[in-house]
Design a protein that fits this description.
The complex is a heterotrimer. By secondary structure, chain A is mainly alpha-helical. Chain A is built from six helices and four strands; from the N terminus they run ααββαββααα. Chain B has two domains: 139 residues, Peroxisomal Thiolase, Chain A, domain 1, CATH 3.40.47; 43 residues, no CATH class. Chain B is of the alpha/beta class. Chain B has seven helices and five strands; from the N terminus they run βαβααααβαββα. In chain B, helix 1 runs parallel beside helix 5. In chain C, the strands form five sheets. In chain C, strands 1, 2, 7, 10, 11, 12, 13, 14, 15, 17, 19 and 20 form a twelve-stranded mixed β-sheet that branches. Chain C has two domains: 234 residues, Thiolase/Chalcone synthase (Peroxisomal Thiolase, Chain A, domain 1), CATH 3.40.47; 155 residues, 3-Layer(aba) Sandwich (Peroxisomal Thiolase, Chain A, domain 1). In chain C, 64% of the residues are buried. Chain C is built from eleven helices and 20 strands. Chains in contact: A-B, A-C, B-C. Chains B and C meet through helix 2, helix 3, helix 4, helix 5 and strand 3 of B and strand 7, helix 4, strand 10, helix 6 and helix 7 of C. Strand 3 of chain B pairs antiparallel with strand 10 of chain C, so a sheet runs across the interface.
């Protein structure tokens, strides 16, 4: 089974779903699957158990990049000084990144594929 | 007139939780105590118009730890001599159970989950102990209409007994002593 | 005319001191109760901060097997009841005990080291301690343990108030006790991602209303008072009058409070109506103020619903910067602090709120205590799961 399929299967119990057809790779975890903050805590736990990879609920994973939220936000909104750099780093999301967006909005961009990709990279980087 | 409903489930008997959930996803927060509470309450209230401000009070018996991964934590928190190791607990034991476990050990979850499912926003309380103690909270109200009183017992074998009742304040027998499931069950 | 109902006397065990005098001094001087965890070995845990209960400035010791909240309950009761004139003048049949408490203590170390363990033997039930208390101090009437998480003690006190108002001959021991400072429960809270991971000085880790607030610090302790009417209360023991109680449910989400604060506000308004006063009669609000990212905005939203344009003018306070989160006991210890502030006619600065989160629009006192006439304090608490509870206290001159 390929990594992405395995990852989608892992998410089934988090959303109490029965088939991975309901967890499409491009689905946003928040907007499409309805993930809340505790679901991310649970996903971090399941990923560690299944893949021995430690993720953090304080990091946003997009396009294989790891963005530490505590470094990007001022008073809860995206630091205007970071917008250009982020757009270059994340071309697929460039049109969605704008100054003043909140933490939750940026979290809302993360798709199943984004998260699976980070896990894949971490597994590959293991000695 | 007060009315009540009783339901019991055997140790491995499935509880038809999903029939009563609006969002399937929420099933993962339920243990058997919470599932039993929602099912008995939903069945009691079926076909009735309930004011969202209807008070709800629930009593629960002792917590059954053994369903929640305690044995796994134990296995992963022992040193070679078989004794407790703070170090192993920190490295392995504490990460060996799902974060959802914490919901299942909190006593207020059966009440809060049922309130979410049935849109109840009224006066409330959760009492530990299956005696008459929970009646104290229920009668301390100015609410004139029916209110919800419920109780859940977990038997040692994993079986669940639940009662849910609708009664007005003046119907609640504050002078009664004994098993709350029996007291409420008299209205069935 | 209905009788008035009072909080009479205090027994308290808290991270800033035990006994009324040590607690009182600790509250007023802004003493810090949060520090590194010591009651069990947590050095390797990802977070090891706690507000441990202290007596005479020393952490109260216990063994792995001991249920700390049962110890605190007995300590607090022994401070208040033996010499309580109002309580001891009431016949045992008219003495009740309504207490808030937390989940069972579990001796994980003992259980893990046992080669063939029966888990039941390692569980400690609070109700055993409550039964002991009732037999020691002659509680002949009703008793119950409210386990509504973070509003357990607040509800217990509110219910006691309603019963004494209806039956002025009763004397009800009310309050709560809790400790989650054991490996199993500490782990649970860590899993929820609820604990502060403050890297700096542990004393600063719980930061209600602060722009850098980052989670709760688990505290522990007990608070007890006797709820009596003026028919049975001894005037020298009266701390404050209790005039209103309300409780509601968010019915919103398992994990988060309703960000709109709708039902939290309604519970406060119910308590205010129960007190037969109006929102403009409330001089100060002692909020739940956990120091988590989501609690404070929900409370700020509730403040706007309760007070309208006055929401940014009414001074607010949270004791949690000093004592952390006492979970099932927080409402008891915080209500005693509110009674203290009414007596002293002061709004205290919220400890560790150094840079107020301006988006909240709340009036948080910083620096020096604010001396002002206080007639009514509104006390709010909210539980994980969505239970809300509110009390209104009135000054007794």
């Amino acid at each position: 089974m390929d990594h992405l399929t395995r990852f989608r299967e892992l998410l089934l119990p988090v959303f109490s779903l029965d088939s991975i057809e309901e967890i499409q790779p491009e689905a946003s975890l928040v907007a499409d699957l309805g993930a809340d903050s505790l679901d991310f805590v649970e996903i971090v736990y399941m990923v560690e158990k299944e893949f021995s990879v430690k993720l953090s609920t304080k990091t946003i994973y997009l396009e294989g990049r790891e963005l530490r939220t505590d470094e990007m936000f001022l008073e809860g909104v995206l630091d205007p000084g970071k917008v250009e750099g982020l757009r270059e780093m994340l071309p697929r999301y460039a049109d969605k990144i704008r100054p003043g967006m909140g933490r939750a909005e940026l979290f809302g961009l993360v798709t199943v594929k984004d998260l699976a990709e980070v896990v894949r990279q971490r597994i590959a980087a293991k000695p | 007139m007060a009315t009540a409903r009783r339901e019991s489930w055997g140790s491995t008997e499935p509880i038809a939780l999903k029939e009563y959930l609006r969002l399937k996803k929420w099933a993962k927060y339920y243990d058997r105590r919470s599932a039993g509470a929602l099912v008995v309450l939903a069945r009691l209230l079926a076909g009735r118009q309930i004011d969202p401000r209807t008070p709800i009070h629930w009593a629960l018996g002792d917590l059954e730890f053994q369903d929640y991964g305690l044995e796994t934590i134990r296995e992963k928190s022992r040193d070679e001599a078989g004794t407790w190791s703070s170090e192993r607990f920190a490295r392995e034991g504490m990460h060996s159970v799902s974060p959802l476990t914490q919901f299942k050990v909190l006593y207020n979850m059966p009440l809060c989950l049922a309130a979410m499912e049935l849109d109840l926003v009224g006066e409330n309380s959760v009492t530990h102990g299956l005696d008459e103690g929970m009646l104290v909270s229920a009668v301390a109200t100015a609410w004139e209409g029916d209110m919800i009183l419920g109780a859940t017992r977990c038997r040692a074998d994993g079986g669940i007994d639940c009662v849910a009742a609708l009664a007005r304040r003046d119907e609640i027998p504050l002078d009664r002593r004994g098993d709350i499931l029996e007291i409420l069950g008299e209205w069935t | 005319m209905t009788e008035r109902v009072f909080l009479c006397g205090a027994g308290v065990v808290s991270p800033i001191g035990s006994g009324w005098d040590e607690f009182r001094q600790g509250v007023l001087e802004g003493r810090h109760g949060c520090a590194r965890l010591t009651v069990f070995d947590g050095t390797l845990l990802p977070v090891h901060l706690a507000a441990e209960a202290r007596a005479n400035a020393k952490v109260i010791p216990s063994a792995d097997r001991d249920d700390r909240k049962s110890i605190f309950l007995a300590m607090a009761a022994s401070q208040i009841l033996p010499t309580h004139r109002g309580w001891n003048a009431v016949a045992p049949a008219l003495r009740w005990a309504l207490l808030g408490g937390g989940i069972e203590h579990f001796d994980l170390a003992g259980y893990t080291s046992d080669p063939d363990p029966d888990w039941r033997l390692y569980q400690r039930h609070l109700r055993v301690a409550v039964e002991e208390l009732c037999s020691t101090y002659g509680v002949g009437g009703m008793r119950s343990v409210n386990v509504s998480a973070c509003v357990g003690a607040t509800q217990a006190m509110g219910v006691a108030f309603r019963h004494v108002r209806a039956n002025p001959d009763l004397a009800i021991l009310a309050g709560g006790t809790d400790s989650m400072l054991s490996p199993l429960h500490y782990m649970g809270f860590h899993h929820l991602g609820a604990l502060s991971e403050w890297n700096g000085d542990p004393a600063l880790a719980c930061r209600p209303f602060d722009a850098d607030r980052c989670g709760i610090v688990l505290g522990e302790g007990a608070g007890l008072t006797v709820v009596q009417s003026d028919r049975t209360a001894h005037p020298s023991e009266i701390l404050a009058e209790i005039v209103g109680y309300g409780t509601t449910l968010d019915a919103h989400m398992v994990t988060d409070p309703d960000p709109e604060g709708t039902q939290l506000a309604r519970c406060a308004l119910d308590a205010i109506a129960d007190a037969k006063i109006r929102p403009e009669d409330v001089d100060c609000v002692h909020l739940h103020g956990t120091g988590t990212p989501k609690n404070e905005p929900a409370e700020a939203a509730a403040m706007r619903r309760i007070f309208g344009s006055r929401a940014s003018e009414v001074p607010v306070f949270s004791l949690k910067g000093q004592v952390g989160h006492l979970v099932g006991a927080c409402g008891a210890v915080e209500t005693l602090a509110a009674a203290l502030c009414l007596r002293e006619q002061v709004v205290l600065p919220t400890v560790n709120c150094m840079r107020v989160d301006q988006s909240l629009g709340l009036r948080v006192v910083q620096g020096e205590p604010l001396a002002m006439p206080l007639r009514h304090i509104l006390k709010l608490n909210a539980a994980f799961g969505g239970q809300n509870a509110a009390l209104v206290l009135r000054r007794v001159p």
